[in-house]
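Board notes (copied after class):
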Amino acid sequence: MGLSDKLPDFLTLEQMLERINADHTVSEVQGMACGMLALNREIRLAQWLKQVLPPKADPQDFYVQEAAKLLQHIFDHAKTTLNDNSLNFEILLPPDEFDIDERVYSLQQWCQGVAFGVAASGLKTLSDLKPASKEWFEDVVKIGGSGEMDVTDEDESEEAYEELKSFLSVGLLMMNEEMQPVVGTPRQAHDTLH
């Protein structure tokens, strides 16, 4: 299992981003990578890091270097899992022992990151998106901007949270495939039938 197959630990990365005074949360930076890569898989790590690292981050600073290494894992993981056939994309969120409202907030932050990433990918207008991608993306924007969500019923909230996570993960993979079809997919499907 390569480094790009495994996401860095959420809490380690959160501490690292705080240490370098990053303007974005862990979930948000992953969302930004996903939004950029889903529309343009040619986006380079340096382009994304420029959006993620603080403008005055000193590349010689030990903490900035350590953060950049962890961030590279996030970028590589997004690039790898968006474009393989395993459909095992995973949103980087706080562990399950965190309160549901914190996890929901991180999911909203991820959505905000996706919206930012799609805009940063060079997309000129939403009408450039294919219909299913446009509909999913509009939902992402709504979720990201919906403010505090009601999480009073713990069981219902857990179920809704898991459904939302699944909806967002599957939707991202769908948008990536719709906007940038992986060359050779029909051939692979044909080969498995015989």
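Comment from the instructor: DSSP finds eight helices and no strands in the chain. Residues 81 and 127 are 26 Å apart (CA to CA).
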